[in-house]
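Q: what sequence does this backbone want?
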């Protein structure tokens, strides 16, 4: 592995625990939606003397009866490569170079469309464009150039890309509680590079494949306002494709697998009409 075994195990277990806690919170909140449907469409909060302090009104009535909903999103994210080191011809690991994947920020923008499937389901298609820069830190462990393609000293590698995302996801929604509702979402996301961005091609020799397919899942919250719906959503993405691109340089030879790994906060805004 590219990172020490203990560090890798701690990261793995921490990630699993975080996802399980999020799913448990969502599943625990689902039953409350059923109780909300028994209440009236508006309610008043009164003080001790009976005076009305505030009135809560359900927004966007009949919104869920439509078969199609449209919107747009902006999504900051943190991304990295899940890497595996290359084996020597004899079967052992090449220990001359140490590689560590670094988490890097980026963002995405795109459009939203939800196709209604019954009272609690929807098919989500949200094409967009993502701007990513993933970094891999390379350190010397007795490294020395073995051919003319190798640099005299190792340097960190950046793989920048602008890609088109075409996610197809299924959304499972709870019953609406006043002006809020929670949902689970999951599916696959094919991605295609429009072009790789290399800040300094003479230094950044490492390259990646031009297409990927990722497994995605997450949790979101619908907030209904008088003229639109706002849905913050946390989504995890795990690439299924090995993006490693073979090359003559020492960086490519040191790795045998590079898979995408991204955590994204989607800020979805849906039209109320």
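A:
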């Amino acid at each position: 592995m590219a990172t020490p075994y203990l560090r890798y195990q701690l990261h793995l277990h921490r990630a699993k625990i975080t996802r399980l806690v999020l799913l448990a919170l969502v599943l625990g909140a689902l039953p409350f939606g059923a109780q909300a449907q028994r209440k009236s469409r508006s309610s008043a909060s009164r003080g001790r003397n009976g005076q009305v302090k505030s009135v809560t009104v359900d927004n966007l009535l009949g919104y869920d009866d439509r078969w199609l909903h449209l919107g747009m999103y902006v999504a900051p994210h943190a991304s990295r490569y899940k890497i595996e080191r290359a084996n020597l011809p004899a079967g052992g690991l090449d220990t001359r170079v140490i590689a560590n994947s670094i988490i890097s920020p980026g963002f995405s923008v795109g459009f939203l469309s939800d196709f209604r499937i019954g009272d609690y389901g929807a098919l989500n298609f949200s094409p967009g464009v993502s701007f990513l820069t993933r970094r891999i830190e390379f350190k010397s462990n007795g490294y020395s150039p073995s051919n003319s393609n190798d640099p005299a000293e190792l340097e960190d590698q950046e793989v920048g890309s602008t890609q088109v995302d075409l996610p197809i996801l299924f959304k499972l929604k709870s019953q609406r509680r006043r002006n809020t509702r929670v949902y689970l979402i999951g599916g696959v996301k094919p991605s295609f590079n429009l072009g790789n961005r290399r800040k300094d091609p003479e230094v950044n020799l490492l390259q990646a494949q031009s297409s990927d397919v990722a497994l995605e899942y997450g949790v979101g919250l619908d907030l209904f306002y008088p003229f639109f719906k706002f849905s913050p959503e946390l989504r995890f993405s795990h690439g299924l494709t090995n993006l490693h691109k073979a090359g003559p340089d020492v960086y490519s030879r040191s790795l045998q697998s590079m898979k995408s790994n991204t955590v994204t906060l989607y800020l979805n805004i849906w039209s109320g009409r």
